[in-house]
Every structure is written in structure tokens, then in C-alpha cells.
Design goal:
globular, Pantoate--beta-alanine Ligase, Chain: A,domain 2, 10 helices, binds pantoate, Rossmann fold
Length: 284
């Protein structure tokens, strides 16, 4: 696996592959890779001849109160993991490479409405940072397809909307959530959890499963508000602090309406130093 840090080397490799008629799949990451990321790389291999992974801890998607300096950086370990899944090229740009003028003065991509809901309400500006860096990475890598994990369900919808709205020539491939045996969705943020907190954390997914069952059992008109309140109480009783738990339309992520057939439960909760997110699509 070749690693490049600058745009010139990245473009040279992409051009060489294009001249050979090869297709390219892309997996953008912030590093500290786990099996969920490796599942994205494995999926990417099914869609293209070459797989490029980027590792870039994007300052633009972190809020002022969020600790970007302590975000886990494990490059040597990440490289070994990427080699084990036959990654063809790793792109590790610096912040100066991505934002030469500083990201405050950078042009940006705003995906309206959907970016302000759920995690966007708790983390103002987060999805502007995500959409901007993903757009920039797409322009640099020019992939045919790009793979994103379904754990970040809202991020996936924001990116899908950006790609459609701006007619970007890339297919977005959602890859299913990889979970620990306990049900906890794999995430770099799980590394912040103590052993005691790791025992509590699976309650988030268990509650989503409970809520999904209740939704399927109950008949019209479903009392969404009461069910969500009970779910939130279950999360708190287990020892987490609910940030939000919302029932939404599966694509627009607007509040679910009584007649919606495809909905998704989105949830975020605090546990120790971590903010955990999870989701569960439900067909009614
Ligand atoms: O999901 C992530 O790791 C990040 O939000 C992404 C898509 C790499 C953009 O920085």
C-alpha cells in the first residue's frame, strides 16, 4: 500500500489508474480504524478496481467545545489494518493541505434543512464541516463510488443529498453497521469508554430494538411521543444521558408522520467522555 500526503502525488496516482481504464472506490475516514471501517474497505473492493482510503481528522466538523486535539490518532496501527484488507492507496493530508487559507475563510458546502436536525441541532455547523470536506475529498480523489457507514445515518443522508443536489458524479454506497457482540455499534468514540461504561453502552441499541418492536406491535394511531418518552427513560435508567431519540422519515429525516411506512429511529446519548449515536430503520 502506497501512502501519499500531498495533492500532487494523489492526482498523479489517480491519473495513472484512469489511463489504465481502472475504476476507483473511495473510503473517507478520520482514522483510529476499527472493523466497521475495514468493512467499508472490503465493500469498496466489490465496486471498483482500486480502493483509496483517506485519513484526515477534519477540524471543520468539530465544535469549539469539542476536543479535536484528543481525538485518537493511531496511524501506524491504521496502516497495518488497511494493508490487511488490501487497500491500494492511503491519502493522509495535513490541515494546511485541505484548508490552505484556514477553514474559516474556505468556501463551504451547506446542505440545508437536514443538516440542522438531530445531531445537527446538538452540534451546530458539524454537517457543514462534513459536507465541505467530503466534497473537497471527492474533487481530489474523483472516485466512481464512495462507501459510508450506516451508523452515521444522518451523515449518509446529508452526503447523499449533497451528491444529488450538486450532480456529483459519484455513487454513494451505504454499508451496514458493524456491532460488537453486545450490540454496541462500533465507533472510534467507544475507545473513550471505561470497562464499566462499556457494560452500560449496549443499552442504547437494546432500547432501539425495544422501540422498534413496540412500533411494529402498536396500531394506528401510534403514540410516537409516549413511546419515545419511555425509550428515553430506559436509556437514562441504564446510566446514559439521552441527547435525543427521534422517529423520522427514513430519507428526509423530518419527524415521522402517522402514515410513513419507512421510518428510522435516530438516537444519541452521552456516556462518560463519549457521545454515542445509533439508529434502527423500521418498516411499518
Ligand atoms: O465519518 C467520518 O469519519 C467523517 O465524518 C468523514 C466522513 C470522514 C468526514 O470527515
Amino acid at each position: 500500500m502506497n501512502t501519499v500526503e500531498n495533492i500532487k502525488d494523489l492526482r498523479a496516482q489517480v491519473k495513472a489508474w484512469r489511463m489504465q481504464g481502472l475504476t476507483i472506490a473511495f473510503v473517507p475516514t478520520m482514522g483510529n480504524l476499527h472493523d466497521g471501517h475495514l468493512a467499508l474497505v472490503k465493500a469498496a473492493h466489490r465496486y471498483a478496481d482500486k480502493v483509496i482510503v483517506s485519513i484526515f481528522v477534519n477540524p471543520m466538523q468539530f465544535g469549539l467545545s469539542e476536543d479535536i486535539d484528543n481525538y485518537p490518532r493511531t496511524l501506524a496501527q491504521d496502516k497495518a489494518s488497511l494493508i490487511s484488507v488490501n487497500t491500494d492507496l492511503l491519502f493522509t493530508p495535513t490541515a494546511d493541505t485541505i484548508y490552505p487559507k484556514g477553514y474559516g475563510d474556505n468556501s463551504y458546502v451547506e446542505v440545508p434543512n437536514i443538516s440542522d436536525l438531530h445531531c445537527g441541532a446538538s452540534r451546530p455547523g458539524h454537517f457543514r464541516g462534513v459536507a465541505t470536506v467530503v466534497c473537497k475529498l471527492f474533487n481530489l480523489v474523483q472516485p466512481d463510488v464512495a462507501c459510508f457507514g450506516s451508523k452515521d445515518y444522518q451523515q449518509l443522508q446529508v452526503i447523499q443529498t449533497m451528491v444529488e443536489d450538486l450532480s456529483m458524479p459519484v455513487d454513494i454506497i451505504p454499508v451496514e453497521i458493524i456491532r460488537e457482540k453486545s450490540g454496541l455499534a462500533m465507533s472510534s468514540r467507544n475507545g473513550y469508554l471505561t470497562p464499566e461504561e462499556l457494560a452500560i453502552a449496549p443499552a442504547l441499541y437494546k432500547t432501539l430494538q425495544w422501540l422498534s418492536e413496540e412500533l411494529r406491535k402498536s396500531h394506528q394511531p401510534r403514540d410516537y411521543a409516549a413511546l419515545v418518552m419511555q425509550a428515553s427513560e430506559q436509556i437514562e435508567k441504564a446510566g446514559l444521558k439521552t441527547d435525543y431519540i427521534n422517529l423520522c422519515h427514513a430519507q428526509t429525516l423530518a419527524p415521522a408522520m402517522p402514515n410513513d411506512k419507512e421510518i428510522v429511529i435516530l438516537a444519541a446519548a452521552y456516556l462518560g467522555k463519549a457521545r454515542l449515536i445509533d439508529n434502527l430503520p423500521v418498516s411499518l
